[in-house]
Write a structure and sequence with these properties.
117 residues, mainly alpha, 0% strand, elongated
């Protein structure tokens, strides 16, 4: 039984680390602001959720029992990540409309292509 739990813990941690890395990588590599807030919000939330699930399982099996601390962290994360991404996106749209100018091009690109203007 312990071998199955250990394999499950390793799998949850591996999936969590993969999605957390994917969220950080998308923050660096994606071009526009809206893509940059979408990638980390979705991928990192799933990654941290898997890591917290592995932590809950580990502490309930090998530790001193189940404690709600990881569950509270997960609830806080799942409530705040989408709301903060929505607020940042809404603010960026509002600032672009208020300035009556297009959203600035991504770094390393001097101008927008003609079909994006």
């Amino acid at each position: 039984m312990n071998l199955f739990i250990d394999i499950l813990l390793i799998a949850l941690l591996a999936v969590g680390v993969f999605f957390t890395f994917l969220g950080g990588f998308s923050l660096v590599k994606l071009r526009s602001f809206f893509q940059r807030i979408h990638g980390p919000t979705k991928a990192s939330t799933l990654g941290v959720g898997c890591i917290l699930l592995a932590s809950m399982l580990y502490h309930s099996v090998y530790g001193d029992g189940f404690h709600p601390r990881e569950l509270l962290i997960a609830v806080f994360l799942f409530l705040t990540a989408p709301v903060s991404a929505h607020m940042m996106g809404k603010a960026a749209l509002h600032l672009a409309q208020k300035a009556d100018a297009p959203v600035p091009p991504p770094p390393g690109q001097d101008t927008l292509p003609d079909d994006k203007r």
